[in-house]
Amino acid sequence: MVTEFNPRNLMDLVRRPIITEKATLLLENNQYTFEISPKATKPEIKAAIESLFEVKVVGVSTINPPRKQRRVGKFMGYRPTYKRAVVTLAAGDSIALFPEV
Fold it and tell me: Taking the complete model, does pTM exceed 0.70, yes or no?
């Protein structure tokens, strides 16, 4: 069963690409890392990446890192929670994270 997603809602799921040392190593395997809305599901993430970047997604892996406790003076709080998605693209597809000017 193929589920249709509203394209307007899909744009809000992907927040930003994550560019770390590990994420740049994954680029060699045609895998891209994004920060995603915490309530997003794997089919929604796949549909969002395919519609935003016009590529074919082969697989989606998600990670929910634990929230970290932070102190500001005498007040304790937590960093905002986020979800990380590692998206594997089909051979021949790519996303321009650093567009050439």
Answer: yes
Chain-wide mean pLDDT for the chain? 90
- Per-residue pLDDT tens for 66-75? 989 999 999 9
Please tell me the distance from the alpha carbon of residue 44 to that of residue 5, in angstroms, as a whole number: 7
**Structure confidence by residue, pLDDT tens digits, 30-57:** 999 999 999 999 999 999 999 999 999 9
Domain boundaries, the chain: 7-89
Q: Could you tell me where the DSSP H helices lie in the chain?
A: 7-11, 21-26, 42-53
User: Which residues are within 8 A (CB) of 21 and not within 5 positions of it... i.e. 6 or more apart?
Assistant: none
Pick the CATH number of 7-89 from 3.30.70.330, 3.90.190.10, 3.40.190.10, 3.90.700.10: 3.30.70.330
The SS3 of residue 7 is helix
| Non-local CB neighbours of 32 within 8 Å, separated by 6+ positions | 17, 23, 26, 49, 86, 87, 89, 95, 97
